[in-house]
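thoughts on both lines:
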Amino acid sequence: MQSTTDHFQPPAQALEYLAFRLGREAYGMDTRKVQQLRAYGAVARIANAPEYVKGVLNLRGAVVPIVDLRIRFKLGAPRYDRFTVVIMLNTASRIKGMVVDSVSDVITLSPEQIRPPPVLGVVLDTDCLTGLGTLDERMLILVDIDKLMSGESMDLVEGRQFEAQGNERFCALKSIEEMT
């Protein structure tokens, strides 16, 4: 596996990451972006929204868009069960909801435990990856949630019109096996 060190900058100090699963893979995100965790429940559907936009919900008077990342990144058919969680995020001064298969725990990673994300060329846009976190035998794909939940691919979340599906640029999530 080839990795990049050109722009890689591990955090200066240990940070806490919320560990979550999409399919078979474990991901991590900075806990400072998490507002709350909610069990997945009914949402109000939006007409003509992409399939990955599950709808919106009312969170204490704020209309919050809910995006299912498993659908968005084509990681297989979602299965909603008692483990399915909506991570409520504070990104770019807006609250958004992100549906994940499950949340496991909060882990602290030191700078030494974070490796640069792999270089995958033009096949995969890894701009939203901040690194690979390692803790004993465990590996987390660390994501920049601001980048992941913004841009053309999340136009509804930002309140803009949907763009043509064919020429979107977005952060793609792939399994660790596909990265190696």
Remarks:
- The radius of gyration is 16 Å.
- Confidence is low (pLDDT under 50) at residues 156-170, 172-180.
- The longest strand covers residues 15-22.
- The helical segments are 69-72, 145-148, 176-179.
